[in-house]
Amino acid sequence: AQSVTQLDSHVSVSEGTPVLLRCNYSSSYSPSLFWYVQHPNKGLQLLLKYTSAATLVKGINGFEAEFKKSETSFHLTKPSAHMSDAAEYFCVVSGPSPGGSYIPTFGRGTSLIVHP
Amino acid sequence: EAQVTQNPRYLITVTGKKLTVTCSQNMNHEYMSWYRQDPGLGLRQIYYSMNVEVTDKGDVPEGYKVSRKEKRNFPLILESPSPNQTSLYFCASRASLSSYNEQFFGPGTRLTVL
C-alpha cells in the first residue's frame, strides 16, 4: 500500500522569498515520486520526478526537490518565488500495487499564494 | 505536438442523460487513465487501461464506464449522471506501466449535473 500526505493545504509567500512545499509518503516498495503543478483552469504539468537516481532532483522553473528516504519526504523548494508560481501543487507517489499495475496516488494538493 | 485532448471542455447536463467525454493521445502511450478532481480531495483515479481492451477500476469507479478499443482513445461514459458526479475530470496517459514514467494530462472537462 502507498499513501502521500501534503502537510499544508495553503502556503503563502512574498515574491522573492523562498518556497517550501512539504510532502511525506508511505510505500512498501521503492517508489517513484513526482511533483505536478496546476495553474488556474489548466491541466497538470510535470515539475520534476525522482526515480531512484540522484536524491536531489532539479525541475523546471527553478524548482527542486530532495528525496530523503530516512524521513520518507520529498519536499519541493524554490529559492525565490515569482508571481507566476501561484498555482496548485500535487505530490504523487507511484509504486507497484499488489496486482503490479503501478497506480499513482496523489496528495490533496497545496495551494501556493504569492504576494507582491 | 505531443498532447492529450479532451472534449468537451465544459458540459452542463441533467440527471439521467447519458454522456460521453472523449480522450485522445497522440504519443502511442500504452497506459491511459481518468481522474476526477474535487476541492480538498486532490485527484482520484476512476478507471485506467493498460492497453487495448484491458481496463480496470481505480479508486472511485461507481457510476462510470470506459472502453479502450483503440490505443489512442479512452472515452469516459456516464450512463446515468447524478449531481454527485459534478466535478472536474482529467484524462492522462503515460508510456507504460513503469513507475518511472510521468503522466501527461489533458486540459480537463468541467462537468455540471443538474
Describe the structure.
The complex is a heterodimer of chains A (116) and B (114). Chain A is built from no helices and twelve strands. The radius of gyration of chain A is 14 Å and the shape is globular. The N and C termini of chain A lie far apart (42 Å). The model of chain B has no long low-confidence stretch (mean pLDDT 94). Chain B is globular and about 40 Å long. Chain B is mainly beta. Chain B starts with a strand and ends with a strand. The chains are: A mainly beta (116), B mainly beta (114). The interface between A and B is medium-sized, with 26 and 24 residues.
In short:
The complex is a heterodimer of chains A (116) and B (114). Chain A is mostly beta strands and 116 residues long.
Gross morphology of chain A is globular
Largest interface: which pair? A-B, 26 and 24 residues
Helix/strand/pairing class of chain B, anyone? mainly beta
Helical fraction of chain B equals: under 10%
- Pick out the low-confidence regions of chain A: none
Order of helices and strands of chain B: EEEEEEEEEEE
Mean pLDDT of chain B: 94
**Proportion of residues in β-strands of chain A:** over 45%
Please provide the count of β strands of chain A: 12
Shape of chain B: globular
Order of helices and strands of chain A: EEEEEEEEEEEE
Overall pLDDT confidence of chain A: 91
Given helix and strand content, the structural type of chain A is: mainly beta
Number-wise, the strands of chain B total 11
Largest β-sheet summary of chain A? 6 strands, mixed
